[in-house]
Amino acid sequence: MDRGPWIKRSPAPFLFTRRQTLTPTRPFRGEDRTVALQQPKIAVKNLTKVFGDPPAPALKLMEEGHDRKEIQQRTGLTLGIADVSFDVAQGEILVVMGLSGCGKSTLIRCLNRLIEPTAGQVLIDGEDITGLSNKDLLALRRRKFGMVFQNFALFPHRTILQNTAFGLEICGMGQDEREQRAAQALQLVGLEGWEQAFPSQLSGGMQQRVGLARALAVDPDILLMDEAFSALDPLIRRDMQQELINLQARVKKTIVFITHDLDEALRLGDRIVLMKDGRVVQIGTPEEILSSPASRYVERFVEDVDKTQILTAGGIMRDARVLALPSDGPRTALHKMEKESFYSLFVVRRDGTLEGYVWADDMGRAIEQGDRQIGPHIQRDHQTVAPDEPVSTLIAMLADSRIPVAVVDEAGRLLGTIVKSNVLAALAAGQSDQAVTAADAATAADKTSEACS
Amino acid sequence: MNHDFPFFGKFPLSDYIDDGLDWLTDTFSGLTRAISNVLGDGVDGVVMLLSFPPPWLVILVFAGIAWLAAGRRVAIGTAAGLLFLWNLQLWQATIETLTLVLFATAVAVAIALPIGILGGLSERFHRATMPVLDFMQTMPAFVYLIPAIPFFGLGQVSAMFATVIFSMPPAIRLTILGIRQVPRELVEAADAFGASRRQKLFKVQLPLAVPTIMAGINQTIMLALSMVVIAAMIGAGGLGGEVWRAIQRLQPGNGFEAGIAIVILAMILDRVTQRIGRKRGS
């Protein structure tokens, strides 16, 4: 069996081995992104799906380079995905992005064969799963995959605990053990106390936490998330994104995340696969996508490269209204953050100079430990820029940063903060009008951010 | 005027059916007799069991069952209705009819559930069952009585046979509907976690179909009740027998008494089974 060239670099693992010990830690956001010479967790090779029977005429037209619309007209067959290839490294979050109908949902379902691919290969830990028997396929889904759905897909007749334990129940685990593990998974997503409730009693955000807990309860290697946060309202969505990032730092799964939202893709993705009409348009890190876009969809945001030189940090920054003082207690700091739904907060001395920042998580811990001052918890690895810094450098900085970039003057005084959406909104707003001033863009950015939150 | 078909003689459909039924009767007479004996004994046994204690005790037990299944109001209604039937001197007939209906429903559901599940899971099977179900429902119910007699002899079992065939379709149809109505995304979620077909059926599809299936069983019970008068023509007795006797003797008062008794029985069975369906569904 042809398993592809990389197999020569590392011994072929036995199918279904748990956790590769040779695997290095995941390339974190902000850490070195060089892909280690390791076997990809998931390798998709020339994957194609044609809806309709027989698929052969559509495949032939596809190889001749015809697009989906033409194939539909000439054969009546629908090309779901066409010749898609990419790898996902162990511990990576890969975001598949595209507009609706681009084939991203089909693609994610081909990974665990909820949809049967027409041609090509899907290799999980080096093993081609497209030829697995029904029995082996069920075993593979039980051991390796957890899936989260756009509309939650919780079972209405089961309690939250029973929903969460579903995957374990399918594996044949005894009731006591599976409910214990399900309760742990619920704790992980912050839903302890809701075990005996039914899904209809929960809000959308909470329901999706259950969906996430259900997927995590089976301790899968791979999480498939199909527009998992798209049905949530924007504020909850941002919370869930942040929570997923925090969670991923602990559980270190390999995640394939589907979305149609560029902002979400930039927030979550270690790498992004852009799709259009069933084909892959571009694969790259967020900054590669932003700095050298290969599709019109992204170009809408970043085509005017010069604009990024004109726009400056001072122009698009937002006022840092909510700040902590070094003398503040952790409760005060946490309260300020909760009020604004922030996960971090800049700390500024009385004279306005920037001291550092604190994490909400640390504040919680400080309260538990009984600390009266935030002093020992202040982090100082934040990034600062001068107000005349061009936006182009901000993109690269923000892509790797989990906290806002601070804009400071020569004396080190904090002037304002910039988050990713400020930059994107400014670029989007500025691109249609060449003469737009930095001030205009900043206003537009503020308005957009407000509309988003 | 001659209405005969001009090209060739009459297609001997009735002869074929008669031959077929004769063959079935001859071949399976052992089996049908056995079924007849078992079911006949069962019905007789239950009728005896319910006739033995004083009516007030039976009424108390039924009211208690109604209370547990459907709450206080239905329990009071059940008790009042049954007391009224006792007063009308229709107690024995009521017990016979109730027993027959419950036996027929049990047999019908036992056959309908597996067929309905298969139809719910397989589109092809579904399409194959549709014309059969149409046939069963639209064929005049009297016609089933004719072959029932050679199969099972005169009496309650033949009546039950005809009742089962006539009342089964809604249970099958609504089981199919219930399973097909389960949201696709829930089935997909079960698939994504590696559920086998059996696990999917018993952990997701069937539990979610229960309210719809119960609605089908409720319909089956109602249809079974509507068959009791017809079944009385082949000696099923019970409330239908009372109606049948009133028809033959032209006694409208007696006829209405027995008819009203059937209505009361229907309402009790309907309320109790409906509540079960709703309770399980919420």
Polypeptide structure, described:
Residues 1-36, 303-310 and 431-453 of chain A have low confidence and may be disordered. Chain A has 19 helices and 15 strands. Chain A has 453 residues and is an alpha/beta fold. Chain B is an all-alpha fold. Helix content of chain B is 86%, strand content 0%. Chain B has helices at residues 13-51, 55-70, 72-87, 91-121, 123-138, 141-152, 156-181, 184-192, 197-232, 238-249, 252-281. In chain B, helix 1 (13-51) packs across helix 4 (91-121), helix 4 (91-121) packs across helix 10 and helix 7 (156-181) runs antiparallel to helix 9. The longest helix of chain B is centred in the first third of the chain and has 39 residues, at 13-51. The A-B interface holds A 112, 114, 137-143, 145-147, 149, 151, 153, 155-157, 166-167, 169-171, 214, 218, 224 and B 183, 185-186, 188-196, 199, 203-204, 207-208.
Topology:
The complex is a heterodimer of chains A (453) and B (282).
Chain A: E1 42-51, H1 56-63, H2 68-75, E2 78-88, E3 93-97, H3 104-111, E4 119-124, E5 127-128, H4 134-144, E6 145-148, H5 160-164, H6 166-170, H7 175-188, H8 204-217, E7 222-226, H9 234-251, E8 254-259, H10 262-268, E9 271-276, E10 279-284, H11 286-291, H12 296-302, H13 305-310, H14 313-316, H15 330-340, E11 344-348, E12 354-359, H16 360-369, E13 384-385, H17 391-399, E14 405-408, E15 414-418, H18 420-430, H19 438-452
Parallel strand pairs in A: 3-8, 3-9, 6-7, 7-8, 13-14
Antiparallel strand pairs in A: 1-2, 1-4, 4-5, 9-10, 11-12, 14-15
Helix pairs in contact in A: 1-2, 7-8, 15-16, 18-19
Chain B: H1 13-51, H2 55-70, H3 72-87, H4 91-121, H5 123-138, H6 141-152, H7 156-181, H8 184-192, H9 197-232, H10 238-249, H11 252-281
Helix pairs in contact in B: 1-4, 1-6, 2-3, 3-11, 4-5, 4-7, 4-9, 4-10, 5-7, 6-7, 7-9, 8-9, 9-10, 9-11, 10-11
